[in-house]
């Protein structure tokens, strides 16, 4: 019976090897699916939370209610959902490889686009509605297709995140070489940004992406070691755990600084699309170098995974390109016609949040300064003085006439 199953000349242990490998592949795919679902669920909650918090800010700014934002139930509800979302994304790193979880950030952009359309209460005819949001719908469809390919063809490397394994990866020559190249690129970009005043969006967001790759590596290590400790093998006594925690917090803080500077110079939709593409590319490269995510994968799976990333990139680009700035305050006299006056429309904030790439592993965004744009506008009144020849004529003036005139 044994020879009939194995064939003549085969070792009897071969009967155990094939079922064991099939079981491991099935178990790895289940872990990938659990991690992907946790990441998708977390990003959805994060998008809803940011919308609730921004809605709370805007409602307070547009009403006579003088309460601060943290005294409203809506803001606290958004904060609670934000915490759950970040916890879901954090937990996803304990189940699935880093290279699979990072590209799923497209779900946040897609969810914000859908929620944004729901928040807009303009009534459109069906043809006008489709014409207006055709790029958003196409982008969402591409993002869904890309997410499906990422989950289906994602890497199946599931190494136990123990202190010994993380230390071994930390001192491996591929990661040391990658770290050296990243430090050199980061220092060059920082020099051009600080000294040469190269305030290009690619330069700033590439700095964020380089820091974000280290944040993703440390988050994966911390989440994996906590998961192993919960299962009974305590890992919190290793010094590498606390080193990873410190690196995670430090890189996240520096990302927040650069993102704040980028948000002051560029539109949030540009930051969302360019930041997502750069952060995902660098983080996947870091995961493949540090955790060896694609070791043992065949060429077909790697190519299909890369295709899923490209489709998700295109979907995010189309979604963010279709966003328009909403005008919340319309003065009696258009500010565009007044030279030397700041245009309030340039600082307008939409009802739905324009999602920026997170400075950590989710999509946390600071909306505390939203009420600054609602300061009352003052228009200069210049009285015309008759008889002054050659003086420049102001664009707006108050004419004084006598009774005889």
Automatic annotation (TrEMBL):
InterPro entries: Mg_trans_NIPA (IPR008521). It is a multi-pass membrane protein. It holds the Pfam family Mg_trans_NIPA. Residues 385-405 are annotated as: Disordered. One of its GO terms (molecular function) is magnesium ion transmembrane transporter activity. The keyword Aminoacyl-tRNA synthetase does not apply. Keywords: Membrane, Transmembrane, Transmembrane helix. One of its GO terms (cellular component) is membrane. The keyword Ribosomal protein does not apply. Its main location: membrane. The chain crosses the membrane at residues 32-53, 74-94, 100-120, 132-151, 171-193, 200-228, 240-259, 271-292, 298-319. It is found in: Membrane. Belongs to the NIPA family. This is NIPA-like protein 3 isoform X1. It comes from Eublepharis macularius (Leopard gecko).
């Amino acid at each position: 019976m044994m020879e009939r199953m194995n064939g003549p000349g085969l070792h009897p242990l071969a009967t155990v090897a094939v079922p064991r490998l099939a079981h491991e592949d099935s178990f790895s795919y289940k872990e990938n699916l659990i991690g992907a679902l946790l990441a998708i669920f977390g990003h959805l909650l994060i998008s809803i939370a940011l919308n609730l918090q921004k809605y709370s800010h805007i409602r307070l700014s547009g009403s006579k209610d003088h309460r601060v934002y943290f005294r409203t139930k809506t803001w606290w509800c958004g904060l609670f959902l934000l915490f759950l979302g970040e916890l879901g994304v954090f937990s996803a790193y304990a189940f699935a490889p880093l290279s699979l979880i990072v590209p799923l950030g497209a779900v946040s952009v897609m969810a914000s686009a859908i929620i944004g359309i729901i928040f807009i209460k303009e009534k459109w005819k069906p043809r006008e509605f489709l014409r207006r949001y055709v790029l958003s719908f196409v982008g969402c469809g591409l993002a869904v297709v890309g997410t499906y390919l990422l989950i289906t063809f994602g890497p199946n490397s599931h190494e136990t995140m123990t202190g010994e394994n993380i230390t071994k990866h930390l001192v491996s020559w591929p990661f040391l070489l990658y770290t050296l190249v990243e430090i050199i690129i980061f220092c060059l970009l920082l020099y051009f940004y600080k000294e040469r005043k190269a305030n290009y969006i690619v330069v700033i967001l590439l700095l964020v992406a380089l820091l974000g790759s280290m944040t993703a590596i440390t988050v994966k290590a911390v989440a994996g070691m906590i998961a192993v400790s919960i299962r009974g093998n305590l890992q919190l006594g290793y010094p590498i755990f606390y080193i990873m925690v410190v690196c995670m917090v430090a890189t996240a803080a520096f990302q927040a600084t650069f993102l704040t500077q980028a948000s002051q110079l560029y539109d949030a939709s540009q930051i969302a699309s360019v930041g997502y593409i750069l952060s995902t590319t660098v983080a996947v490269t870091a995961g493949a170098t540090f955790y060896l995510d694609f070791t043992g994968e065949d060429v077909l799976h790697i190519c299909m995974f890369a295709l899923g990333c490209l489709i998700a990139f295109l979907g995010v680009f189309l979604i963010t390109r279709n966003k328009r700035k909403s005008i919340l305050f319309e003065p009696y006299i258009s500010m565009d016609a007044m030279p030397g006056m700041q245009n309030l429309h340039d600082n307008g904030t939409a009802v739905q949040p324009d999602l920026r790439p997170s400075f950590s592993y989710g999509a946390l965004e600071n909306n505390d300064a939203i009420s600054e744009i609602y300061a009352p506008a003052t228009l200069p009144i210049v009285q015309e003085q008759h008889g002054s020849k050659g003086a420049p004529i102001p664009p707006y003036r108050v004419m004084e006439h006598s009774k005889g005139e």
